[in-house]
Design goal:
With about 525 residues, this protein is of the alpha+beta class. It contains 20 helices and 15 strands. It folds into 4 domains: about 150 residues, ph1033 like fold (Roll); about 120 residues, no CATH class; about 100 residues, CBS-domain (Roll), CATH 3.10.580.10; about 120 residues, no CATH class. Helix 15 runs parallel beside helix 20 and helix 19 crosses helix 20. It is globular, with a radius of gyration of 27 Å.
Length: about 525
């Protein structure tokens, strides 16, 4: 049993038809019937022909999604449909791929589905599963954290049971003092280990903003605690240990921090010779990408080239790392390198098809590797022992940065709509009245207002009445203030992506503004 997400278009435009007709509807209307296209290469050729202006990356990305939709999704699998109402529908696949060429809205790619529940509140879904649903792809699998079993529970009207490996104990650490007591209670051989997500929750934060990081650093310093590896590095679900930084050495003459760090990375808050704490900056590391912490599939040195080719076809890979017995990179095989090797020798070996692979360290600045990933399509990731521990592809970068751009685009549209309606409905003298001092004379339109000024402006009964909106003023102003706080938080760097759940207040405000002023 597997679980999938199939979106109803970028703006949910196919949502009504999907729910009413009991179908999943993929886009790509320019493509014809895909029934007889049985391989990825068949679909890739069809996509390239239908969209000749698109580059290799986009063609490959679309090919993967369509292959899943046509071949990998099976009858009996669960499917999730995120809705514009910020609720979720869950169904079960009831048939294979179909192509409806006679539909009134044009040709359609269809999978029939029985909708089991159409109004699941996102608040009833745990954050990790919501995060998994946040991909910008149209068709993708939910494969992590026992997703299929949890979707099955939601389909039965039950709450999300959560990931099977969820740390219930971590949830009991509701304040720094409890964390401190737990570290004191444990022995050096059994340190407190928890995810960065759970660690941040002790301070009531969800993302590593500079202000939050500084507060946590200060609290750790005051209590003599360190984290290994640094809590400022790695993905939000990476594991860290919390240790007593100043504990006495054991019988071997080494501290718990040194013993633990020997197998991981340098601790956060390492003490220098002058007694000052060496601070760790929050940077966008390679390790912040989830795929950089997930061991890729590979073949060993000495394997048959046919083995690598078979695995690449089965998994739809464009390349495959070749590792030695110690897990270190010895090269990479790709379809291009295999083709070149076969031109020289039809009986080419794995070694003759290998080419050099680029390796990034987990602690490297991700921005320094973007050009390499764009050019080569991927980069391998190694740990401090130079063993391969992950693989970053162009698709990983696109998904990550697409997720990061989305909140800014959303807030920008909110600001644009506020400017337009204020300029249209409220005279300039009343707009200037909410700007203090001499700055008021420099206000020529709503574009000169700060985001926070809109709340002060629309609190004035006369200004609110001028909008002519038949909605509750207090609820609107509350939503506006929530959006202001969300906007301010975006302006502070964090290596952690904004989740759909965290986007809810701003998304709701934007939908309200679109409804009240649909002409914009």
């Amino acid at each position: 049993m597997r679980a999938w997400v199939v979106r109803a278009g970028e703006n949910g435009q196919r949502e009504h038809a999907a729910l009413e007709e009991g179908v999943l509807l993929a886009g790509w209307h320019e493509l014809g019937d895909l029934t007889d296209l049985t391989t990825r290469e068949d679909i890739r050729a069809a996509v390239a022909a239908a969209y000749p202006e698109e580059g290799p990356y986009t063609v490959g990305n679309w090919t993967g999604q369509l292959y899943r939709f046509v071949h990998e999704i099976q009858p009996g699998d669960f499917v999730v449909l995120p809705l514009k109402s910020w609720r979720v529908a869950v169904g079960r696949i009831r048939g294979g791929y179909e192509h409806d060429a006679r539909a009134t809205d044009g040709p359609r790619h269809i999978r029939r589905v029985e909708w089991l529940v159409k109004d699941i509140d996102r608040q009833s879904i745990q954050p990790d599963l919501l995060d998994s649903m946040g991909s910008l792809l149209t068709v993708f699998e939910l494969s992590r954290f026992a997703a299929a079993e949890r979707i099955a529970a939601l389909a039965e009207g039950k709450p999300d049971p959560g990931r099977p490996d969820a740390d219930e104990f971590a949830a009991s650490l509701t304040e720094p003092a409890k964390l401190y007591e737990e570290v004191r209670r444990r022995t050096a051989d059994e340190p407190l280990t928890l995810s960065i997500r759970d660690f941040l929750a002790v301070w009531g934060v969800q993302r590593r903003y500079p202000a939050a990081v500084e507060q946590i650093k200060n609290d750790l310093d005051q209590r003599g605690l360190v984290t290994v590896p640094p809590f400022t590095e790695g993905s939000i679900d990476s594991k860290i240990a919390v240790l007593a930084g100043g504990a006495e050495p054991d019988a071997s003459g080494t501290s718990a921090v040194t013993r633990f760090a020997d197998t991981t990375a340098a601790p956060h808050g390492a003490v220098e010779a002058d007694g000052e704490i060496e601070t760790q900056t929050v940077a966008y590391r390679v390790s912040n990408l989830e795929s950089a912490n997930r061991m890729p599939e590979f073949v060993r040195v000495g394997a048959d080239l046919k083995t690598a080719m078979t695995l690449m076809v089965l998994r739809g890979y464009s390349q495959l790392p070749v590792l030695d017995a110690d897990g270190r990179l010895r090269g990479v095989v790709s379809w291009e390198s295999i083709g070149r090797a076969h031109l020289a020798d039809p009986h080419a070996s794995l070694e003759s098809a290998m080419v050099r692979g680029q390796e990034a360290d987990r602690s490297d600045d991700l921005l320094n590797w973007i050009g390499t990933v764009q050019q080569a399509g991927f980069v391998l990731v190694r740990d401090r022992d130079h063993k391969v521990c992950g693989l970053v592809t162009a698709a990983d970068l696109t998904g990550q940065f697409g997720t990061r751009v989305r909140p800014f685009v959303l807030v920008e549209e909110i600001e644009q709509r506020l400017r337009r309606v204020v300029d249209r409905c409220i005279p300039i003298d009343r707009i200037r009245a909410v700007v203090p001092g001499r700055r008021a004379s420099r206000v020529n339109s709503a574009a000169n207002l700060t985001f926070g000024a809109y709340g002060h402006l629309l609190k004035v009964p006369e200004n609110w009445a001028a909008l002519g909106w038949a909605i509750d003023q207090q609820y609107f102003l509350t939503a506006l203030e929530e959006c202001r706080q969300f906007r301010n938080s975006l302006m502070h760097f964090s290596p952690d992506p904004v989740t759909d759940d965290q986007l809810l207040p701003a998304q709701g405000l934007l939908e309200l503004l679109r409804s009240m002023d649909p002409s914009n």
